[in-house]
Structure formats: C-alpha cells, structure tokens
Amino acid sequence: MEFEELVRNRYSCRKFLPAPVLRPTIERILDLAQQTPSWCNVQPWQVVLVTGGAVTSFRDSLLAHAAGGHSPKPDFPFPLRYEGIYRERRKVCGVQLYQALGIGRENREGAERQRLENFRFFDAPHVALITTEEELGVYGAVDCGLYVANFMLAAKNFGVDSIAQAALASYPDLIRSRFGLPSNRKLVCGISFGYADAEHPIHRYRTERARAGEVATWIG
Ligand SMILES: Cc1cc2nc3c(=O)[nH]c(=O)nc-3n(C[C@H](O)[C@H](O)[C@H](O)COP(=O)(O)O)c2cc1C
C-alpha cells in the first residue's frame, strides 16, 4: 500500500479470525518496526511475542485475573480523568463501540463483557507485549509509543490488523512473573494482531480526528 493509504486504512481491530500470521510475515513486521527512531538511538523496546498455544494459556490466566476484580496496577499511571474535549472524545469513542454492538446504556453486563474482551485479546492469535527499561523514564516510553505505531503500520502493510492495548498493561507483575522479565522492565502496552473478522459488527464504524488546523499553531 502507498503510505497515505496505509495510514488512513489502519484501524483498531477488535475481532480477529483464528488464522495465524505466518512466522516470516511476523518477522518482517518486527524487522520494519526496528527502524523506529529513539532518543540517542537507545532502542529501549523489548518485545515478548506470545503466539500459538501460549496465547491460550496467557489469555486464561490474564482473563481470570481481570475478571476477578483486581484493580489495575500499571507501571505507567493510567489517565487520572478525562475533562473537556478529552471527555467528549472518549465518550464518542465508547458510544460508537457500544452502538455497533447494540449494547444499550443500561446494559452494564454487556459493557463489562466487552471490557473483558481486552483480556481475550479480541481472539487475536498473536500478542506482542512492549516493555521499556525503567531507568530510561518517560522518553523510553515515548520511544516505545513510536515503535507501537510503526509496528501497527508495518503489520497493515502486510494485510495484518492490530490493536494497541493499554488494558494489557493493567497487571504488569503477572506478566513479569509469567514471562521471566526483570523488575526494571516496565510494561508500556500490548498489541494484539492477526487477520480481522472484517464483517463483524464491531468493525462497522471508524473513529474520527480533529482537523490538523485545530492542533497546529503556526508561528511566523
Ligand atoms: C497506547 C494505546 C492504548 C490503547 N489501549 C486500548 C485498549 O486497552 N483497549 C481498546 O479497546 N483500545 C485501545 N486503544 C485503541 C484506541 O481506542 C484507538 O486507537 C482510538 O480509539 C482510535 O481509533 P483507531 O485506532 O481505530 O483509529 C489504544 C490505543 C493506543 C494508541
């Protein structure tokens, strides 16, 4: 795909088909994502690539933990609150999702079921967990954010759909212990990926963006 088409066509996939992505394709995605720039070229990202049967057992333990009512304890604090325009955008984002699925305002059970889909990786056959080094601070996490964007665009370039998931950073201790990560590896987020179930109702809408003119202040 042309770059512009690629950027405009990527969307967060929330229902995947079971078909796995072939390993050489995943390796090409990883290889392209390695081109991500980082401060002083430190390349802080390390990726735990969960695939095959390991996804099933990981999902079972994470889902049980999340459904068990444990409060998230992320390495990087989740937003404290959403006010003003951010509150508005967040609301639209949620309304679009629930409307696509026919989950009404009063349907708390349906909303909770959909929240827990995060911990089922939306049925994705692969999950990448993106970590940074604690000592690199906020810019290490920024570099990882760039990596996530490049990973998702690289995936789309090969016809592979994806979704970045901060939800997967809710329980980093569980993930460190499960995958033998040292305590100074901090979890930024996960990326679930695979081939989209494109006909699923959850994919009937696309999110919108503010116009560039609303965010850029031109000086001179
Ligand atoms: C860092 C990051 C974390 C995200 N975490 C979640 C998540 O936990 N669950 C989810 O359903 N979507 C998550 N998203 C997806 C966003 O909701 C989505 O990118 C946004 O609504 C714009 O929609 P689009 O990706 O379809 O363009 C995340 C996106 C980013 C970039």
What's this model, at a glance?
The chain is an alpha+beta fold and 220 residues long.
State the distance separating the first and last CA atoms: 35 Å
Strand order, largest beta sheet:
1-2-4-3
Number of discrete helical segments: 7
Number of strands: 4
Secondary-structure element order, N to C: HHEHHHEHEHE
Class by SSE composition: alpha+beta
Using the CA coordinates, give the radius of gyration: 18 Å
Average of the residue pLDDT scores: 97
Largest sheet: 4 strands, antiparallel
* Weakly predicted, low-confidence segments: none
- The helix content is 40-55%
Cofactors, ions and other ligands in the entry: flavin mononucleotide
Overall 3D form:
globular
Q: Please indicate the percent range of residues in DSSP E strands (runs of 2 or more).
A: 5-15%
SSE arrangement:
Layout: H1 3-9, H2 23-33, E1 46-51, H3 53-67, H4 84-101, H5 108-117, E2 126-133, H6 137-157, E3 161-165, H7 172-179, E4 185-194
Antiparallel strand pairs: 1-2, 2-4, 3-4
The structure holds flavin mononucleotide.
What does this structure look like?
It is a single chain. By secondary structure, this protein is α+β, with helices and mostly antiparallel strands. Helix content is 41%, strand content 13%. The chain has seven helices and four strands; from the N terminus they run ααβαααβαβαβ. The protein has helices at residues 3-9, 23-33, 53-67, 84-101, 108-117, 137-157, 172-179; strands spanning 46-51, 126-133, 161-165, 185-194. The longest helix is centred in the C-terminal third of the chain and has 21 residues, at 137-157. It is globular, with a radius of gyration of 18 Å. The model has no long low-confidence stretch (mean pLDDT 97). The structure holds flavin mononucleotide. Residues 11-12, 93, 118, 163-167, 189, 207 line the site of flavin mononucleotide. Flavin mononucleotide (FMN) is lined by residues 11-12, 93, 118, 163-167, 189, 207.
